[in-house]
Amino acid sequence: MRRLSLSCLALLASAFALTAHASSITITETFTADGSFNGTAFTDQTVTFGGTGNTSSVSVAGDFAELLTTSNFLQIGSGPTYSFSSPLEAFANGGTNDFAGFFDTTDLFDIADITNAAFSTYQLKTSLSVSGAGSPSASPLSTTGGSFEIDTIDSNVTYTAVVAGSSPVPEPSSILLLATSALGLFGATRRRIELGCTNQSF
Questions:
Q1: Which of 11, 40, 111, 140 is disulfide-compatible with 149, CB 3.0–4.6 A?
Q2: pTM
Q3: What fold characterizes domain 22-163?
């Protein structure tokens, strides 16, 4: 009985280990664009922006996944790095829509959405690198360096999501632990059944 209880505890611990992997994820979009920053127009500049969040905070409703970032950044050309004044929310809209991007949580304006079939099942929990056509922001966005606005996107948008630390996909060691516990539980149960059969009187 004691051996059976220990096997059950090991199995539960293994299952918990498989689900406990929450990691930091940094999502970045890069593209060439025309627009304005702090009242000054720019042309054919590389724009890079994004944010960092935690995969355990991803909210999924149907084909729509969203993640509130805990930090964000913006860089135009080789200039300094600024932050958006409002938190950014990353999202992936799957199903038949297949696009992803960020939106400003105050005004709810999208910044630069990207279309790619990879987003049909993407849920902001794994690393990904794709490119596709982009749509510019619908309105100026406030940053620590001034107002930022994209007029046109002159290139495909490169979307990169990088998961840091342990992967949310179960690693081989956790799978091995789960399998070993399952075998131990099976063996202990089988032994109890055999003992029960031999102790029966006919």
A1: 140
A2: 0.71
A3: Lipocalin (2.40.128)
